[in-house]
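User: Good morning. I'm curious how heme C would be positioned relative to this chain. Could you predict the structure with it bound?
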Amino acid sequence: MGKFLLGVIITLVILVLAALGFAMLGFLPTRANVEPPHLERHFAMAAVDASTERHAPRITNPLTPTDQNLEDGMKLYTMNCALCHGGLDRKPSTLANSFYPPAPNFISDPPDDPEWHTFYTIRTGIRYSGMPAWDKTLAEPDMWKIAMLLSHMDKLPPAVQDFWKANFNTAPAAPGDENNGKDERNEKKEEKHDH
Ligand code: HEC
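Assistant: Good morning! Here's the predicted structure, ligand included:
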């Protein structure tokens, strides 16, 4: 039994040293300008989700979804998130595919997570990715406003939709309209309308 245990421990030590050697000799891939393999993406996303489920407090958004709060959310999103997650003007982010993993586009494909989930991600960021933690940069009410906007993207009140159109020259997605914004031809058509 003692010999067996010793064997297990020696094997583990060799594996750890091999992994360290692998990394120190420069075999660990560190490039961000490649697509993550499908399997890696699948497991990494499941792990991030599970960690959020385990750690994020189940708090309800302390703010009510008034027109003003949603419009504030749009401004905050534009200033802090659009660079990587796509702007309300529906121009695709030039940086989105330069991260490993890429940053999802929230204008064509908003997250369908509850607000406490999105709030936690915004506040704490995602380790080993390009997603920053915003707790040192944004006030909590501002993070709640952005989480609110993202969860109301397909059910914005008419006044907020008008605010969107007036300020960003494009229309918010209609409920159930999955192609809105994803279809380049749509964008071109809308551009023509405006000029
Ligand atoms: C510098 C680029 C960058 C900025 C700026 C940025 N993000 Fe991210 N974000 C990322 C990347 C890259 C990911 C993908 C991480 C992953 O899939 O693990 C991500 C992931 C996320 C996710 C998780 C998405 C999912 O599918 O679960 C949320 C939510 C999010 N970001 C919200 C925001 C919000 C809100 C802002 C603005 C306050 C913001 N991000 C600003 C790069 C950025």
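Residues 15 and 189 are 58 Å apart (CA to CA). Helices lie at 2-24, 38-55, 67-80, 82-85, 115-124, 140-151, 158-168, 184-194.
Let me know if you'd like a different ligand tried.
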